[in-house]
Amino acid sequence: MWSLKKEKGVPIYISIIELILAHIKTGKLLPGDRLPSERKLASYFQVNRSTVVHALDELVALGWVVRKQGSGTIVNTGKWGIRTTPRTDWRQYLEQNAFHKVEPFTEKVEQLLQQAPNNLIDGYTGELPLDLVPTFEFPPLTWKHFLEEEQQDDLGYFPLRQSICRDISAQYDFSLSSENILITSGAQQALFLILQVLLKPGDSVAIESPSFLYSLPIFQAAGIRLYGVEMDEEGICVDSLEKVALKHRIKMVMVNPSFQNPTGKSMSMKRRLDLIEFCQSYQMPIVEDDVFGQLNFESSPLIQPLKKLDPENVLYIGSLSKILGSTTKIGWLSAPHSVIKQLAEARKMMDFSLSIFPQLLANMAMTDPLYLTKITLLKKEIKKRGQAVFQLLNSMNEWEVEMPKGGLYIWARWKKGNLKQTDWSLFLQEQLLIAPGFFFSEKQDCIRINFSRIDETNFFSFKKSIEKITLKLLSEKNKID
User: Fold this and answer.
1) Burial level of 156, CB count in 10 A (0-12/13-18/19+)?
2) Are β-strands 204-209 and 250-255 bridged in parallel, bridged antiparallel, or unpaired?
3) Could you point out which of 28, 343, 379, 467 has its C-alpha 20 to 30 Å from the C-alpha of 282?
4) Residue 355: CB partners within 8 Å, gap ≥ 6?
């Protein structure tokens, strides 16, 4: 295991780094495993101890290992702080591919989704089921109509940007300028552009813990370090954020304040104001992901975008994909004009042009006379499904749940402690797909369920599955006790 292959022209400390990384990725070294002492490694590799120290220092800086007083060097148990290693040849690039899916649970879920057995219950997929996606009647269009459409510039289709501004004004009672909105191919492209233009490899970003951002490979691919900040019932804890910011030199804060993914929580107005005041004092920009903002179950003046409260310091991301279906791939990013110009220029240089076709259709949907009526009916049905799932889980003493005020997800905590790998497999065995807590943080005791996909036709099957899984989990817990 500790036999070092020394390559001509490759510094020895680099070879040591690659050997340890290879052992971590292949599972020979697991999270929490302790590496041999520096002296032993130097003996194994037949090198000076200083060379081993250099290699371990690099691995610590990259976030793959941590050093604890009295415990030696340990493989990092989570993803916080991890970034990719700079590479100089194709083999090494491929080994370091952050987009390569290695999570076994994810692979098994995707296999089941592809096989689509009749009794499969999909509470995992993060989008609306087809039966809930609103339908709109479009006028006959010719190919020439698309070719003649001249109202698109570097920021995107101008009428669609106007429609987005009108919709935000009606919903939140504040104005965005169409000149400060960039249409993107979904919310993730907006995030990608921010990482590429406003941050550099090695920079640190603070996110909520748990958060869907934790599982996105674009951060590691860009060399950005993520650090999680604990949440309470009001949202991200600003006191904890300050400690993380000072310790890790945080450059940017990314939050999902309304109907947060995965917890479904909404940040209180007081916490929103506290977060804004903190970030202003440290001159730290905020990225606000508001893709679920339109899926509010009740009108509340307390749920106001951070962008409305601090227009100049907040980069605001929205999306139509959560209400018009994921294939729509229409998102947007609002930022100060100087920032938007740079982001648009970067996208053009990357050749990430956006087709006029989905933009034109999205604008037709938003300007349809029945658009608001259909969105209202959609929210009513989603809320109904969410309440059914909530009431079921809330009636079971083993689960702790809270009904969200909007969005698609319910977050359920197993009260009996952490779940093991064999416990997670019970969900797969019962053909019930959920997103486990370790997708979103280092939590091992929670599940996320997309309740919009649990309807009257499969609710009884869902009920039987979750009850059966709960009994099996209790049985396993009792064996241990």
Assistant:
1) buried
2) parallel
3) 343
4) none
Does the structural domain 12-95 have CATH classification 1.10.10.10? Answer: yes
Predicted TM-score of the model (pTM): 0.81
Question: Dihedral angle at the C-alpha atoms of 30, 31, 33, 35, nearest 10 degrees?
Answer: 90
Does domain 143-367 fall under CATH 3.90.1150.10? My reply is no
Q: What is the pLDDT of residue 87?
A: 45
Residue 202 carries which DSSP code?
A: T
DSSP string for 343-354:
HHHHHHHTT---
How many Cα atoms occupy the beta-carbon half-sphere of 460 within 13 Å? 2
The CATH fold assigned to 117-132+373-480 is Aspartate Aminotransferase, domain 1 (3.90.1150)
Q: What is the DSSP letter of 283?
A: T
* Phi, psi (degrees; rounded to nearest 5) at 336: -50, 150
Per-residue pLDDT tens digits for 347-393: 888 766 678 888 988 999 999 999 999 999 999 999 999 999 999 99
| CA within 13 Å, CB half, 453 | 20
Query: Which helix (DSSP H) or strand (DSSP E) does residue 315 occupy?
Result: strand 314-319
- Which residue matches tokens 């809270």? 402
Domain boundaries, the chain: 12-95, 117-132+373-480, 143-367
Distances (CA, A) of 336 to 151, 257, 319, 365: 22, 20, 19, 27
What is the residue whose two structure tokens read 């004009």? 337
- pLDDT at position 89 is 44
Q: Which residues pair with 446 in a beta bridge?
A: 413
Give yes or no on whether 12-95 and 117-132+373-480 have one common fold.
no
Pairing assessment for the beta strands 446-450 and 65-68 based on DSSP bridges:
unpaired
pLDDT attached to residue 168: 93
Contact residues for 255 (Cβ-Cβ < 8 A; gap 6+)? 207, 208, 235, 236, 267, 275, 286, 287, 288, 289, 306
**Cβ(288)–Cβ(255) under 8 Å?**
yes
Q: Is 172 exposed, middle or buried (0-12, 13-18, 19+ CB in 10 A)?
A: middle
Compute CA distances 55 → 21, 119, 351, whole Å: 11, 50, 38
Q: Where do the DSSP E strands lie in 8-68?
A: 65-68
User: Would you state the structure tokens that stand for residue 94, as one six-digit string?
Assistant: 């491929």
Amino acid at 175: S
Enumerate residue ranges in the chain where pLDDT < 70.
83-103, 143-151, 300-302, 351-353, 479-481
